[in-house]
Amino acid sequence: MDQIAIISDIHGNMPALEAVLQDIQRHGISRIMCLGDIAGKGPSSDLVVDTIRSACEQVVKGNWDDLISQVGVHDFTKWHQELMGSERLEYLGSLPFSIEFMMSGRFVRLFHASPRSMYERVQPWDDEEQRKSLFAASELSLVQRPADVAGYGDIHNAFLQNLGGRTLFNAGSVGNPLDITQASYVILEGEYGGETPAPFSIRFERVPYDIEQAVQQAVEAQMPYLEPYIRELRTAQYRGLPQPKQD
User: Fold this and answer.
1) Calpha distance 173→196 (Å, rounded)
2) Is 32 helix (H, G, I), strand (E, B) or coil?
3) 184 contacts: CB under 8 Å, gap ≥ 6
4) How buried is residue 199: exposed, middle or buried, by Cβ count under 10 Å (0-12/13-18/19+)?
5) CB 28 within 8 A of CB 215
6) Where do the DSSP E strands lie in 70-174?
7) Who contacts 89 (Cβ-Cβ below 8 Å, separation ≥6)?
8) Which residues contact 216 (CB under 8 A, 6 or more apart)?
9) Burial class (CB in 10 A: 0-12, 13-18, 19+), 120
10) How far apart are CA 44 and CA 6, in angstroms?
11) Distance from C-alpha of 42 to C-alpha of 22, rounded to nearest angstrom
12) What is the CA 57 to chain-centroid distance, rounded?
């Protein structure tokens, strides 16, 4: 059986990324895919980008990666742009939209936020039809067929749902989780590239990391929007506000 680690939303948090990569290594997994938002929010976007490029087999573009790669357009990204330099910004701008493959007879599509946009936000408590739409292909898809398994990041809230016989999952966030204060990632297990039905599983992993080290790095870097970032790391609440509850 093959194993794939799915990570997402590191957001410049190097202590969290290091903890997750160590856990992936502990499981003996060599294939890692990243669902975007490598940079931004945290103080170490440059180091995180370099590490992701080295560690990950495939990486898709997140909304923060897209914003930061647009040099000089957004005031709140300028600090991160200056930290990263032009070559890393070019790398972020060149990232693909989605990853698609067969696994144990299932067509798997991975993307950052939705199959239509890096900016469309879909939560696990949203309308069922909206969640089901995440299986659909779009003009941005590599293959024009609905996914049997759709996986994404963006919302920093890990979950798994069965919707009409198809499987939807969110990998959560490595560096900025908004459900519990531990880094999150997913392990897919099955026959990678397999066209015929075979055993298949999705497993969620939660990894503790040194949050206070991440806070101290942000303080020492004198990064912008420092207090909201610290509150998110320490409380897992978005900008200090409670998350909506599922019905």
Assistant:
1) 31
2) strand
3) 158, 171, 172, 173, 174, 177, 204, 205, 206, 207
4) exposed
5) no
6) 98-103, 106-111, 149-152, 159-163, 166-170
7) 68, 69, 71, 81
8) none
9) middle
10) 21
11) 20
12) 14
165: alpha, beta or left, given left = phi > 0 and alpha = psi -120 to 50? Answer: left
Model pLDDT for residues 24-83, shown as the tens digit of each residue: 999 999 999 999 999 999 999 999 999 999 999 999 999 999 999 987 767 778 899 999
Question: Is 18:44 a contact under the CB 8 Å cutoff?
Answer: no
Residue 63 one-letter amino acid: N
- Summarised one tens digit per residue, pLDDT across range 59-74 is 999 999 999 998 776 7
Q: Looking at residues 117-135, what average pLDDT do you find?
A: 96
Fold of the domain spanning 2-112+173-235: Purple Acid Phosphatase; chain A, domain 2 (3.60.21)
Q: What is the DSSP letter of 60?
A: -
Residue with tokens 């999150």: 184
Return the domain boundaries, the chain.
2-112+173-235
Please tell me whether the overall predicted TM-score, pTM, comes out greater than 0.85 for this model: yes
Closest listed residue to residue 16, CA positions, set 184, 146, 160, 133: 184
Q: Which two tokens stand for residue 27?
A: 């499981």
DSSP, collapsed to helix, strand or coil, labels residue 160 as strand
Residue type, 162: N
Amino acid at position 36, single letter: G
